[in-house]
Amino acid sequence: MTIRVAVAGATGRMGRLALRLVEEADDLDLHAGLDSRSALTDLDGADVVLDVTHPAASEGIVRHAVAQGIPVVVGTSGWSADRITGIQAYRREFEAPGAVVFVPNFSVGSVLGTALAAYAARFFDSIEIVEAHHAGKVDSPSGTAVRTAEVIADARGDLPVVAPHADQRARGQLVAGIPVHSLRLAGLSAEQRVVLGGEGETLTIAHSTISPAAYEQGILLALRRAPEAEGVVVGLDALLGIAMPGADAS
């Protein structure tokens, strides 16, 4: 069966990549490619919506897809646990059949890095995240860093991370109690380092994206799995069968 895909954010970097992948795949067909001037009703009739827009537009797209009962894959950054909880409530209100799949990062390597960091976090009390992206990325911290911090906090349970003093503003934004430092620089694609410190040692778990090809496998997997998924799913790990320590993936 061919899956009809609507891509919101079709003129952006990830949108253009998604359009190419849909065109090359035998089991995918482009239903619509939306830009900032398109009407949300252009999504109607699709089997799955891929949202790769920007934080200000993403929620409206997701809510429209939910109201229409269309499964949606959300690749836009800026979705914290609290905002996702709001979508869960909105979905219950409509008793919507279509799943909402939030994917902070479509890279399999990035997902594995987050899982390894969450596992290691149970053994270290001092943890900080440094993430770097290209200069054009408008949001910070990145969705990947937010997801990593939240999963680490879940894995640690009631054990707090040793955080900086309130007056140390240069030590990063606290996300789920974990300092996150964001860099936006020309010449970069995407990179994340989780640095864990203990007595007499540090452990660094790092992932670098050097080409958009890193996202291809994850985008295709999400588009193919979303029509059959149920409820609200958070993270590509849930589609890959990777267990995040302490995390609730739905």
Care to describe what's here?
It is built from seven helices and eleven strands. It is an alpha/beta fold and 250 residues long. The strands form two sheets. Strands 2-1-3-4-5-11 form a six-stranded parallel beta sheet, sandwiched between helices. The radius of gyration is 18 Å and the shape is globular. The relative contact order is 0.17. Residues 111-240 form the Dihydrodipicolinate reductase C-terminal domain. NADP(+) binds at residue 37. The active site is at 133 (proton donor/acceptor), 137 (proton donor).
Short précis:
The chain is of the alpha/beta class and 250 residues long.
Strand order of the largest sheet: 2-1-3-4-5-11
Instruction: Give the CATH architecture of the largest domain.
Output: 3-Layer(aba) Sandwich
The count of strands amounts to 11
What's the CATH H-level homologous superfamily of the largest domain? NAD(P)-binding Rossmann-like Domain
- Morphology call: globular
Measured distance between first and last alpha carbons: 27 Å
Largest sheet: 6 strands, parallel
What share of the residues does DSSP label as strand, in percent? 15-25%
Task: Work out the helicity level.
Answer: 25-40%
As for the number of domains, it is 2
Written as H for each helix and E for each strand, in order along the chain, the element string is EHEEHEHEHEHEEEEHEH
- Mean pLDDT across every amino acid position: 93
How many helices in DSSP terms?
A: 7
Rounded to the nearest angstrom, the radius of gyration is 18 Å
Low-confidence stretches: none
InterPro entries: DapB_C (IPR022663), DapB_N (IPR000846), DapB_N_CS (IPR022664), DHDPR_bac (IPR023940), NAD(P)-bd_dom_sf (IPR036291)
Function: Catalyzes the conversion of 4-hydroxy-tetrahydrodipicolinate (HTPA) to tetrahydrodipicolinate.
Protein name: 4-hydroxy-tetrahydrodipicolinate reductase
Binding site for NADP(+): 37
